[in-house]
Every structure is written in structure tokens, then in C-alpha cells.
Amino acid sequence: MITLGSPGAEKVWPMARRVLQPLDMSMTSDSRPHAIPLERMTTGDLLSCVEPFTAARPAEIEILAQSAVRIRKAAGAPIVEEGHAPDGVYIVLRGRVNLVRAGAGHRDLILMTLGPGDVLGETCAFDRSIQATAAFAAVPVELLRIPADVLAAHLRREPESMMRLMQLMVDKLRDIEGVASSLALYDVEERLRRTLVRLAQRQGRRASTSPVAGAPGGWILAPVPTQSELARMVGSCRETVSRTLSAMARDGLVSSSGRRMILDPRMLGEAA
User: Fold this and answer.
1) Domain 7-182 fold
2) What predicted TM-score, i.e. pTM, was given to this entire model?
3) Could you report how far apart the first and last alpha carbons of the chain are, in Å?
4) What are phi and psi of 198, to 5 degrees?
5) Are strands 134-137 and 88-94 parallel, antiparallel or unpaired?
6) What is the pLDDT of residue 31?
7) What does the pLDDT average to over 118-122?
8) pLDDT tens digits, 130-144
């Protein structure tokens, strides 16, 4: 996760500000400045504005950068496999990564979707036991990997990074608990509504127009996950998700164009 509220972010403030502006949900697509993708930044600069390293000293950033390796994965490729211990912490630079829990009968559930600036495999610093959750590239991705031993040594030298990493883990656990609660408490339509809102809040941006004429701008989610992915996020099947999205479109709650979806502002209020 990328933040600007820490002293470490001041080292790259001009660049980090341009990177983070697209995540400002109050901005319209017409008013946003050109963003600098994370994959185009130097390793040191991107580490300085990505949690949990925003408060790390420059010397520590340099140590991390020297050990970090950039990796590209094709869509569908495993990043962290179930039954294996993670070999390091990964920062998503480009693309989308799904955290997946496998079930019986070749079924699985997508617990969370990660985008640029998010981290995975962070438990490698504390626990090298096998993972019950796998991570797969949903689309072609680029990642930055920091070896587990390098991360553990950094955390021993930088307690603030340790605290920030723990906060990331708590936030991730809270999101996954929300998924579990939704599966138990809500029907498919409400689960899908909440999933789309969560994705838009984490990875979307403000739109200048709404699916409903004369209404305020909604939220753009692009590229939107496939219907099969959405079904795996809400514990349903693709056919049910397709019918539910069609009903939402008839009600003016969503509109789609290719891999781009616009959510009407009413979606946020109804999913609150």
C-alpha cells in the first residue's frame, strides 16, 4: 500500500504525489494529472513511497533495493503456491493479483484482489510454514521481490517498518473477515454489490459522468475482473453473476464497456 503520511515519503514527494493522485477518489478522470506507473520508477524511489517502507532510513532503502528483484508473471501464473512457504515479500508494480483459497471439487474462492502498491507474502518475515492461501496473477503482472532473510533483517533494524507491516497484515485480515461475513450474511446480489464497491474503493477512480443522466459521477473500475473471477469472489457461479449484473445495469447502477465498468454513486450508499 502506498501512503504519503510518513516522513519517509517526503524523500520522493514530487514523484510519489504524481503516483498516488489516481488513488484519490475525490478526483475526476478529467482533472487527474498524468501518473508515473510504479514499474517505471527506480527501485529505491518506489520503495520509499510504498508501505511498509515509507519511514525507513535512506541507507535501509538502499540495502533493500540492492537485494530486490523485478519479476514478470503471465496471467494465471502462480506467485505464492498453496502448500509452499513464501520465498520473500512481493510488491505489485503492475497488474492484478488474486489471493485464492482452494476448496473441494476443484472450486476455489478469491479472498482478495491486490493491485499496484499492495504487498503479499509478508508472513515470510515471521513464519516460514506452508501457506494455505495461494496467489495467482489475474492478468500479466510485474512485481518486486525482496528475499525473506533480507526483509527479516530490515525489520530487526527498523522497528517502524515492523509496525507498518503488522498494520498491513491487520488490514488484510480485516478485509478477509469481511468476505467471510458476507458469505454468511448476504445473498449473491448484495455480496456482488459489496465486492464491486470494495474493488472500486481500492483500485478504482472517480468518473466524470454517471450511468444515470444528470446524476453525479460514479466510480470507474478498469480493468474490471471477469465474470468468472467475480463469481469466485462472491462464492457463486458465472451465470448467476451475469444475471445479477444485467439486473444492476437495468436499474442504472452499473454500465460496462469492454473491461471498464462504471458504478453509480448509489452503489456506495446501498453497500454501506
Assistant:
1) Jelly Rolls (2.60.120)
2) 0.78
3) 23
4) -65, -40
5) unpaired
6) 33
7) 93
8) 777 899 999 999 999
CATH 1.10.10.10 maps onto the chain at: 187-271
Q: Which residue has the cell 468476505?
A: 179
Quick: pLDDT tens for 83-110.
888 889 999 999 999 999 987 777 889 9
CATH architecture of 187-271: Orthogonal Bundle (1.10)
Alpha-carbon span 145 to 8, nearest angstrom: 20
**Could you give the residue range(s) of every CATH 2.60.120.10 domain in the chain?**
7-182
Beta-carbon neighbour count of residue 33 at 10 Å? 10
Give the pLDDT score at 54.
95
Residue type at 215 in one-letter notation: A
